[in-house]
Amino acid sequence: MDTPLIQLCNVSKSFDNNTVLNNINLSIFKGEITTIIGKSGEGKSVLLKHIIGLLKPDSGTILFTGKAFSAHSSVEQLSLKKKFSYMFQDSALFDSMTVYDNIALPLQEASQLTKTEIQQRVKIRMTQLDIIGTEQQYPGQLSGGMRKRVALARALVTDPEIILFDEPTTGLDPIRKKAVHQMIANYQRKLGFTGVIVSHEIPEIFSISQRIALLNKGDIIFQGTPEQLNNDDNPVISAFIHGHESSLLDID
Ligand SMILES: Nc1ncnc2c1ncn2[C@@H]1O[C@H](COP(=O)(O)OP(=O)(O)OP(=O)(O)O)[C@@H](O)[C@H]1O
Hints:
- The chain is of the alpha/beta class.
- The protein has a single domain, classed as Rossmann fold (3-Layer(aba) Sandwich), CATH 3.40.50.300.
- 37% of the residues lie in helices and 24% in strands.
- It has helices spanning 44-52, 74-83, 99-110, 115-128, 144-156, 174-191, 226-231, 235-241, 245-248, and strands at 6-15, 18-28, 33-37, 59-64, 67-68, 84-87, 162-166, 194-198, 211-216, 219-224.
- Strands 6-7-8-3-9-10 form a six-stranded mixed beta sheet, sandwiched between helices. The protein has a four-stranded antiparallel beta sheet with strand order 2-1-4-5, with helices on one face.
- α3 (99-110) crosses α4 (115-128), α3 (99-110) runs parallel beside α5 (144-156) and α5 runs parallel beside α6 (174-191).
- The longest helix has 18 residues, at 174-191.
- The protein is globular.
- The two termini are 32 Å apart.
- 33% of the residues are buried.
- Bound molecules: adenosine-5'-triphosphate.
């Protein structure tokens, strides 16, 4: 198998006495969608934040194409950072900024593009996501589904190679959830980015994921394809995917 694009090696993280990640190992492969599942509060967001560098592990390493971030040259580190994009749990749009400005922001902050080039890039993404016409509106004036599309347009506007999605469908009704999943899958196919999704949408999320990682009690207890997950006979895993979360509490 290819070298993973991102590899967490023996990563541990505690907050005071709360051990959230306990020596975890996880591989993320280029061009795939890897979905991290697990009960609430297990550390899925903490794991995502380690990948993007918002949190540092207490011990262990995170490798990017086989090399620790710090082992890359400063030029490589900058180019690595530019490859990432992040779609937060609550969309994290700036309510005081228009839809246009929200989407244009990453380009204004991190690119050398002219105003006209930025306008063109924003327009392309807004057209693809069917939100043309909302440019001058504010996030608070939009429905939850529209806000997700604006957030996705912003996450995609820099043509990132790696996008991290933290519960991208939280708070949406089942139809809109499906639409957001399809949107992510379609763009992933079209643009070929590597996706890492944290999700509670089981089993729906499996249909757009090439790999699943199950985080339980600080450990990744499964990583593999959705099919392998479904066929796994570990009782903790089957209890989790069949929705009996409470039984996890009793198994160490
Ligand atoms: N900055 C922080 N300081 C202290 N504790 C933190 C911090 N960030 C996260 N935690 C703790 O780490 C644990 C895991 O939190 P995290 O948000 O990663 O869970 P999660 O699996 O993403 O949950 P959910 O599915 O409910 O979003 C929680 O106990 C949380 O309180």
